[in-house]
Design brief:
This protein is α+β, with helices and mostly antiparallel strands. It is about 15% helix and about 35% strand. It has helices at about 25-30, 35-45, and strands spanning about 1-5, 15, 20, 45-50, 50-55, 60, 65-70, 70-80. The strands form two sheets. Strands 2-1-8-7-4-5 form a six-stranded antiparallel sheet, covered by helices on one side. Strands 3-6 form a two-stranded antiparallel ribbon. A hairpin with a 2-residue loop joins strand 7 (about 65-70) and strand 8 (about 70-80). The radius of gyration is 11 Å and the shape is globular.
């Protein structure tokens, strides 16, 4: 199963080939943050998952889930394999 992370408002999809992706990895893949910055912003409560503040950087995101950081929304979508 392929999963794609897309940023709403016309960004390009970022394909991955797993069933889920961890929040920290999704943020890096979407280029919302760099390296160790993901850990910090998640732990500081600056990220929302499905509309709720999330401080677990290992949170698993599945197709249909979304995360918001600095006003930008990224949605996990599934691609049929």
């Amino acid at each position: 199963m392929k999963v794609t992370v897309t940023k709403k408002q016309g960004s390009s999809p970022l394909p991955i080939t797993t069933e889920f992706i961890k929040l920290e990895a999704a943020m890096k893949l979407a280029q919302a943050v760099t390296g160790g910055m993901a850990k910090t912003v998640i732990q500081e409560g600056q990220v929302e998952v499905n509309g709720e503040t999330c401080t677990m950087r290992g949170k698993k995101l599945y197709p249909g889930d979304s995360f918001t950081f600095q006003g930008e929304i990224f949605t996990i979508v599934s691609h049929g394999a």
